[in-house]
Specification:
The chain is of the alpha+beta class and about 240 residues long. It has helices at about 1-30, 35-40, 55-60, 75-80, 90-110, 110-115; strands spanning about 50-55, 125-135, 140-150, 160-170, 175-190, 190-200, 205-215, 220-235, 235-240. The protein contains six helices and nine strands.
Amino acid sequence: MKAVIYVVGMLLLITACVGKEVKSNLKNKPNIEYPAALVHQLDKFPLLQVPYSIDSVFFDADSALQIGTGTLYAPTVKLLSTPMASDEVSRREQYYLNDYFKIAKAKKDGKYAALKANLDIGMTENAVCNPVGRIEFGDTAALLIWEIKYESFPACPSYFGHDLLGSYIQHGKVISCMHLASRESGADAPMFYETFQLAKIDQQGRINIKTSSKTQEDSTVVEQSKSHFHYQITTRGFKLLK
């Protein structure tokens, strides 16, 4: 009789433990359906509080001014960046992404030193990609924010860029990828230029963007401009608002 009671007790204990484990797993499982290749990488993309601002303070941080080593790899970057939005700035991003894929492959194959040895002025010497975070919209959609940093061969004309992109995900697919914000600079003595694109994203999927650019000759500003526009995230991607 004692043996029967012991067996029944153990079964109840095991059932209770399994139940707790299942509840725990369900609690930690994201409600939004992400592409299968991204599910195990979500810890790299912490949840961001909205409204979320990408401002000049973000780009002035010491870590932002260093290339560092990338923690997003080429297959993930390919997934996140396809398809690219149709606006001019996002389309231009493909140029730096192509350089990134070429450099990433050279590093993987142990041929990066040879690649650098054959670079000429005005060519990209290094490029890396990293996760930034994610914004979730209800239970069906999310915006994964990530960055690409790149720098040129160290001779004039030279350039450095730090760009943030947003990949809009719905029903397990990347719907579109858009250039959200950036800090880019370059020099071709005696000329120097710097551009900023700053962004603020709210819970309704509205993206408020401000851009500014300045060109100097020696220490004299010869050209500068500012602009301000808005996008709305829709089921089809990013829509420019009139």
